[in-house]
Amino acid sequence: MIASVGMIVVASIALTLGGIAFWLLGVVAALFMMAEWAMLQGADAKTRRMTQFALSVPLALMAPASLILVVHDFFTLGLLAGAAFFVVITTRKPPLALGIIYCGLPVLALMIIRRQEDGVLLTLWALSLVWACDIGAFFTGRSLGGPKLAPVISPNKTWSGLIGGVVLAGIVAAILHVGYALPFHLALATPFLAALAQMGDLYESWLKRVAGVKDSGNTLPGHGGVMDRLDGLVPVAPVAALLIMLPSLYS
Is 251 helix (H, G, I), strand (E, B) or coil? Predict the structure, then answer.
């Protein structure tokens, strides 16, 4: 719990500061995740470093405009695909290339969200719904127990935990809507994104089960690796960014 609070505090400070601080936190998280992804795929140390170098190119272009003068999100998205292609042709291992997208796309999505007019509120919504879902699922699952959600993949997860996580995330979104004018369509979509966060958690659990390991790494005390903490955010961030951008695309 202490480690969880510490991570939330660090993320909140970086989110509030924005700019270089938020970008650097995203870069560090993505590079740790890339190393852990490569390790789960059985890559050696040299290959892990190579995938991190490949990912660092699009991550550099996600920097705030104060560093790179002009931000080109679609070009950066193309570079993510290019980095993935580079990893494929150099390693002949498509799963390693998938890690480039898995680790880089959520960072790009969060940078896009943070640059919006209400970037702090919108990014806080995307992050807090994942946090709330994790907390609600943990305490509800421990308290109520019941049928397992996916016993083959993750024996500890229950349907009651999933429901508890979705409900708590919805409550947090409702508070942000009423108290801070979070757009209604985002608050309405929150329960679905919370369920998506749980699917991201299950996907990472499946990766670890295939690799035969308990945690993706040992970077975070009591939590394992960075992927173990951000697995729910990986699918949520891109979808959240799309939902945020939709009104401007159709206006």
Answer: coil
Q: What is the pLDDT of residues 154-192, one digit of tens each?
A: 888 899 999 999 999 999 999 999 999 999 999 999 999
User: In a 3-state reduction of DSSP, which class is residue 219?
Assistant: coil
Q: Which two tokens stand for residue 236?
A: 């949520």
Helix (H/G/I), strand (E/B), else coil: 239: helix
CB 226 within 8 A of CB 217: yes
- How many whole angstroms separate alpha carbon 127 and alpha carbon 223? 18
Residue 173's contacts (CB-CB under 8 Å, 6 or more residues apart) are 125, 129, 182, 186, 187, 190
Amino acid residing at 189:
A
The answer to whether residues 113 and 63 touch, using CB atoms and an 8 Å cutoff, is no
DSSP secondary structure, 224-242, as one string: BSHHHHHTTHHHHHHHHHH
44 burial type by CB count under 10 A (0-12 exposed, 13-18 middle, 19+ buried)? exposed
| pTM reported for the whole predicted model | 0.91
CB 129, CB 180: distance < 8 Å: no
Whether the Cβ atoms of residue 146 and residue 160 lie closer than 8 Å to each other: yes
By residue count, the chain amounts to 251
pLDDT tens track for 39-72:
999 999 999 999 999 999 999 989 887 666 567 7
